[in-house]
Amino acid sequence: MEKTKSRLNIEQWVRPNVLAMKPYSSARDEFKDFECEMVFLDANENPNRTLVNRYPDPQQSLLKELLTSRRGRKIEELLLGNGSDEVLDLIFRVFCEPGKDEVIILPPTYGMYKVLAETNNIAYQEIPLNSDFQLDTTGILKSQTENTKLLFICSPNNPSGNAMQSEKVKELIENFNGIVVVDEAYIDFSNSESWVNAIGTYNNLIVTQTLSKAYGMAGIRLGSCFAAPEIISLLNKIKPPYNVNILTQNYAIDRIRDDEGIQSEIDLLITERNRLTAALKTVSFVDQVFSSDANFVLVRVDDADKRYRQLIDKGIVVRNRSKQLHCENTLRITVGTKQENDLVINTLKEL
Ligand SMILES: *Cc1c(COP(=O)(O)O)cnc(C)c1O
User: Fold this and answer.
1) Whose CA, among 96, 119, 150, 170, lies 20 to 30 Å from 85?
2) Ligand 1 in contact with 200 (CB < 6 A)?
3) Is 241 left (phi over 0), alpha (psi -120 to 50) or beta?
């Protein structure tokens, strides 16, 4: 896959002020050697040693080394942020001129793309997924205007759970006149190949990932994106220098090193997802269980509002997705522990 297909001129889609900008250089950018015995009087820190009296590494070098080696990429191809929500916001701010540019989003999908578009005063076009929650490539390509900069593809998709057909994603990356962002928050639960492997082939592709789901660290807020080095440098230019704090970096470094532990948790969640899917199909008022590549299952029931409330009364909180396109009367159920899944299955069967 590493054969370079086409090197597009990325600068044509970048906001002129960002292109012109020089990155802010923080004290710790100038002197990076954290481990050595130097006297640090450069950053107005309090010298009294605690675990956190020093500013964190603004480039998160050690953490990036671990993550890139696991995904088979280079450090210059990775950016880290305070959750993938921050990474997505940085992508908006590098490419989209407020009040002028546009993005395309594909409902039903993750709500943050729209929130970030609105926050940044960027117009969005919504091109619905088809009723199988797959990509309408013709509709997407047809609706692009000269001001469309970004296309957001969530795969596996939240809330439907399916991965997008890779031929169609490829068609979009190759034909969309702008940047294609593939959000892979759930990729570790899927059999589909990660688009991270295509970063060397397409320089208009950004793949976002997160440590919040499969890696079990939603609380530390750590998200990432992989892209060609030229895109990563642009994002680095505008990111707050110390956007990933020391506690987060250290915690993630420790946990990521336990590859086997993480993989066995993922394997167990996949087994539980498949068991939950099968069990839900036997519930009398469940009309449809959508097949999932993620750690949640979308189900269509007879009356979602009623079933949602009944579950709340039994102390179980799921997500009612009924207001989303193609999602009438659906609930999204996250895969829990074996005991939690047993509880939700038994509770539903007894309603
Ligand atoms: C949960 C989720 C994320 C994660 O966001 P973080 O800010 O990294 O926690 C990103 N994208 C999608 C589609 C999600 O469902």
Assistant:
1) 170
2) no
3) alpha
